[in-house]
Write a structure and sequence with these properties.
Blueprint lengths: L1 H5 L3 H15 L12 H5 L20 E5 L5 H10 L3 E5 L3 H8 L10 H9 L3 E4 L10 E4 L14 H10 L8 E4 L7 H11 L21 E4 L18 E5 L2 H11 L6 E4 L2 H32 L3 H8 L23 H10 L6 H27 L8 E5 L14 H11 L3 E5 L24 H5 L3 E4 L8 H7 L3 E3 L14 E3 L1
Parallel strand pairs: 1-2, 1-4, 2-3, 4-5, 5-6, 7-8, 9-10, 9-11, 11-12, 12-13
Antiparallel strand pairs: 6-7
Bound molecules: nicotinamide-adenine-dinucleotide.
Length: 497
């Protein structure tokens, strides 16, 4: 309704009507490209189809990456590696300073790589968004977290679109990479960019293969798996969907230069939904094994043995592993983008809700198990001294976001346990959005310290830990990851949970 009231007359009415229909129609509605007199008077009339999608097959393009984090920085370096001129834009001046000096702030991203491209002038960083005017392509890689009510917080995407808008140029390609619900590119980003007076029409189908437009707009989800040595960015196929066919082709041409395979889809919504499906698939399957683990524990069956046995089936099964809860920026967050959006369609995403319920209960299960294990040693949780091993959300990464260990530590604190932590990737902890363990420092790991605790809780199974030595020295070990599977000595000290 809002759009009907806002824009009366001419091209805009037709254009905005599309959006209001999207809001109630579960199917993709595409504009037929027809304009009335007023539309022809608009800037759109004068639009130049002078830059064709094929332009983005070219060499030495100027690529702007907005948001130089876990996703944006590797992407920037990949484009630089392919010979393009890349500028990283970030609102954090410290990051920009470090990048400009050729330094890395992400553990698995090598400093030498950044230095190499800074020196060859293929990569630079800035906080000055007016430099976006020089770019051929602008890729948005900013955070998409949940707010305190566990609803999508699109403020970073919105702010980014607002900072592009005054600098948007004809013929530029803008691609949103941040994970989000279907509709974001068309409903949030496009209207902000069009406030520039430049137009990009929502259209699909063969009849719109060459629909004219002032700029190109697409969505292409990032599939980065930080720390994954088997699949780097270049080996991971990239899904691409345009607001219209030329936008889709422009984005395909660009990404084909840096990834092994581009998978085109018919719309930005399909691309947005594809990313959510991938992450919901993981979230639901992890919840399934977490629930089965609870049953197996009660039945005295080793769930890890069961999963390995089932994984021997060469088709129709994919192993997922239980743990202390979900972590990372994606899996605990992204599914709720879809359940929030689904409410607009009177639709309840029950699998997502159920999976969320099971996964968020896991840190409580861990703390209950620690309490029970101590109880068997005639000790109470309250007042016991514990050592928590690993705070990162998964092994071998320097990423704390949404780590279930932080939740476990919070519950331990509330229940009166005393605890320290060790994590080779986090020598000390800082204040976070939901937690404050600011004054904590990682304690050194040796036989003497290990023996001084009532129990050791393995929360993150970093590869650098010597699990045999840990079990040897500790009085009691609560293992949430089956990290001690190969330890043969003192198995009586180990509680799998
Ligand atoms: N980390 C992953 O493994 C991963 C994988 C796939 C997809 N994603 C998605 O990619 C997106 C980015 O995630 P990330 O992990 O790189 O986040 P991040 O927090 O590591 O990086 C985001 C960067 O954006 C900067 N930033 C914030 N607001 C800005 C603004 N208005 N203008 C310019 N810069 C701004 C921040 O300073 C930060 O450097 C998210 O939507 C996330 O869901 C992440």
């Amino acid at each position: 309704m809002k759009f009907w009231k806002q824009s009366l007359g001419g091209f805009n009415v037709h254009h905005r009507c599309c959006y209001s229909i999207y809001a109630v129609c579960p199917f993709r509605f595409r504009a037929n490209v027809t304009f009335n007199k007023e539309g022809l008077r608009s800037k759109f009339h004068a639009m130049a189809a002078d830059r064709r999608p094929e332009f983005f097959k070219g060499a030495q393009l100027k690529v702007a990456i907005i948001g130089c984090g876990y996703v944006g920085l590797p992407l920037a370096l990949r484009f630089a590696e392919a010979g393009h001129k890349v500028t990283g834009f970030d609102t954090d001046p410290k990051k920009v300073q470090m990048l400009s000096a050729g330094k890395s702030y992400i553990e698995h991203i090598q400093q030498t790589k950044i230095q190499q491209y800074v020196n060859s002038r293929h990569f630079g960083a800035t906080t000055d968004f007016s430099k976006l005017e020089e770019a051929d392509a602008i890729l948005i890689c900013v955070p998409t977290p949940l707010n305190e009510y566990r609803e999508p917080d699109l403020s970073y995407v919105e702010e980014t679109a607002k900072s592009i808008q005054p600098h948007l140029q004809k013929g530029q390609l803008v691609v949103l990479e941040s994970t989000t619900y279907p509709g974001t590119t068309e409903e949030l980003v496009l209207p902000i960019l069009e406030k520039s007076g430049l137009r990009c029409l929502i259209a699909s189908g063969p009849e719109n293969e060459n629909v004219p437009g002032d700029f190109f707009l697409a969505f292409s989800p990032e599939r980065e798996d930080p720390g994954n040595k088997q699949f780097g960015l270049a080996q991971i196929p990239k899904v691409v969907g345009g607001v219209n066919p030329p936008s889709g082709r422009a984005a395909q041409a660009l990404y084909a230069q840096v990834v092994s395979k581009v998978i085109p889809v018919s719309s930005t919504r399909a691309a947005e939904m594809a990313k959510l499906l991938e992450n919901i698939f993981r979230c639901v399957n992890i919840a399934l094994v977490n629930e089965l683990k609870l049953l197996c524990l009660r039945m005295g069956v080793d769930v890890w043995e069961v999963i390995d046995a089932a994984a021997s089936k060469p088709f129709g099964f994919m192993p997922f592993y239980p743990g202390p809860g979900l972590g990372g920026h994606c899996i605990p967050v992204d599914p709720f983008y879809l359940s929030w959006k689904a409410r607009e369609y009177d639709f309840s995403t029950r699998f997502i809700e159920l999976a969320g319920e099971i996964n968020t209960s896991m840190p409580y299960h861990v703390v209950d198990s620690v309490g029970e294990a101590l109880n068997r040693h005639k000790k109470s949780l309250k007042g016991s001294k514990l050592l928590v091993l690993g705070v990162a959300y998964k092994k071998d990464v320097d990423d704390l976001r949404e780590s279930p260990t932080l939740k476990i530590m919070e519950i331990l604190q509330k229940r009166g346990a005393e605890f320290d932590y060790n994590d080779p990737y986090f020598p000390h902890l800082h204040k976070m959005r939901h937690y404050n363990f600011e004054n904590m420092k990682s304690v050194p790991l040796n036989a003497q310290t290990l023996a001084s605790y009532d129990a050791v809780v393995i929360s993150t199974d970093h590869s650098s830990y010597d699990y045999g030595a840990i079990v040897d020295a500790a009085k009691l070990v609560i293992d949430t990851r089956n990290a001690t599977r190969r330890v043969m000595r003192h198995r009586d000290k180990i509680v799998l949970c």
